């Protein structure tokens, strides 16, 4: 069990070494730290949502971000994805400022953050995963088409490719967005409540993908209510909320393996 004695206002995500990194990507393979959060603070206007968040996540980790509604799970993922600015601290990916590493980081939003009436096909959505690699203006090349076809196959939605995204079931929509992430060929995959509002088959497929991604040396960060066994945790709590450390210990014991935690402070309402 990791120590729970971080100084007030500071929290550390202890790390384990990657258990397995079978397909390290390119020259980034030698970097032990895949994703580093250094004293990260995020605010909406003057309201501080997260402060002093520290984490050092090596490859081959599935990290669950756990916390009550409104504790800042989505905000943390958006900060890593570059969708909300940092009010303080820094995020690095393979030792570089994460702004320079965007194409290595894929983001799957929570259902509520997507405009489902936007008129795009499933294929269009998955092709968006290629934009960080080829730019917005260049036409798709054969390798883009191949990557999209492969991602559609991985999620078993090739037959839905020409459907409008808004016509799909919740599970199919989630598959489409995960296919978009796969098409990007990322090293870090951020998912906001990926298991919410989906069918059992999609749930099982996502769980299997977590295992495949971990084996391939990727980092998976998911905001969730259901901790993945054997993974690490970042626990967000509101200021003054007692007992989160015990809670983390308890979940960690159930998970049966290495886990980590983060304490969340500085909520200024
Ligand atoms: N765009 C925004 N502007 C202002 N406040 C926001 C915004 N998004 C979220 N919040 C607030 O930030 C807090 C954390 O929200 P969020 O990160 O969505 O939490 P969670 O995902 O854990 O439910 C909540 O109090 C929420 O109301
Ligand atoms: Mg959320």
Walkthrough of the structure:
This protein is 28% helix and 21% strand. It has 7 helices and 9 strands; from the N terminus they run βββαβββααααβαββα. The protein has a single domain (26-255), classed as P-loop containing nucleotide triphosphate hydrolases (Rossmann fold, 3-Layer(aba) Sandwich). The strands form 2 sheets. A 5-stranded parallel beta sheet has the order 6-7-8-3-9, with helices on both faces. Strands 2-1-4-5 form a 4-stranded antiparallel beta sheet, with helices on one face. With 269 residues, the protein is of the alpha/beta class. Helix 4 crosses helix 5 and helix 5 runs parallel beside helix 6. Bound molecules: adenosine-5'-diphosphate and magnesium ion (MG). The site of adenosine-5'-diphosphate has 11 residues, from helix 1. The site of magnesium ion (MG) has 5 residues, from helix 1.
| Unreliable sequence segments | 1-25, 242-269
Bound molecules: adenosine-5'-diphosphate, magnesium ion
| CATH topology label | Rossmann fold
* Strand composition percent: 15-25%
Helix content: 25-40%
Mean pLDDT: 81
Trace the largest sheet across and list its strands. 6-7-8-3-9
Radius of gyration based on Cα positions: 18 Å
CATH homology group: P-loop containing nucleotide triphosphate hydrolases
Largest sheet at a glance? 5 strands, parallel
Q: Tally of extended strands?
A: 9
Number of helices: 7
Domain tally: 1
Form type: globular
* Helix and strand pattern: EEEHEEEHHHHEHEEH
């Amino acid at each position: 069990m990791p120590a729970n004695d971080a100084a007030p206002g500071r929290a550390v995500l202890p790390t384990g070494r990657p258990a397995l990194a079978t397909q390290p990507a390119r020259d980034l393979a030698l970097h032990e730290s895949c994703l580093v959060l250094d004293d990260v603070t995020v605010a909406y206007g003057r309201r501080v949502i997260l402060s002093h968040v520290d984490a050092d996540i090596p490859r081959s980790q599935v990290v669950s971000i756990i916390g009550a509604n409104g504790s800042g799970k989505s905000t943390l993922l958006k900060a890593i994805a570059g969708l909300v600015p940092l009010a303080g601290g820094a995020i690095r990916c393979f030792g570089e400022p994460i702004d320079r590493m965007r194409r290595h980081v894929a983001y799957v939003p929570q259902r509520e953050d997507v405009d489902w009436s936007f008129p795009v096909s499933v294929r269009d959505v998955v092709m968006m995963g290629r934009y960080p690699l080829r730019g917005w203006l260049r036409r798709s090349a054969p390798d883009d088409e191949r990557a999209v076809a492969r991602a559609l196959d991985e999620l078993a939605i090739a037959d839905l490719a020409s459907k409008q995204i808004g016509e799909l079931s919740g599970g199919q929509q989630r598959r489409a967005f995960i296919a978009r992430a796969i098409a990007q060929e990322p090293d870090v995959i951020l998912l906001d409540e990926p298991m919410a509002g989906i069918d059992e088959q999609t749930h099982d497929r996502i769980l299997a993908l977590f295992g495949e991604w971990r084996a391939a040396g990727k980092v998976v960060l998911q905001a969730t209510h259901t901790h993945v066994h054997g993974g690490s945790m970042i626990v967000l709590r509101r200021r003054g909320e007692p007992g989160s450390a015990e809670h983390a210990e308890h979940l960690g014991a159930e998970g049966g393996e290495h886990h980590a935690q983060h304490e969340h402070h500085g909520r200024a309402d």
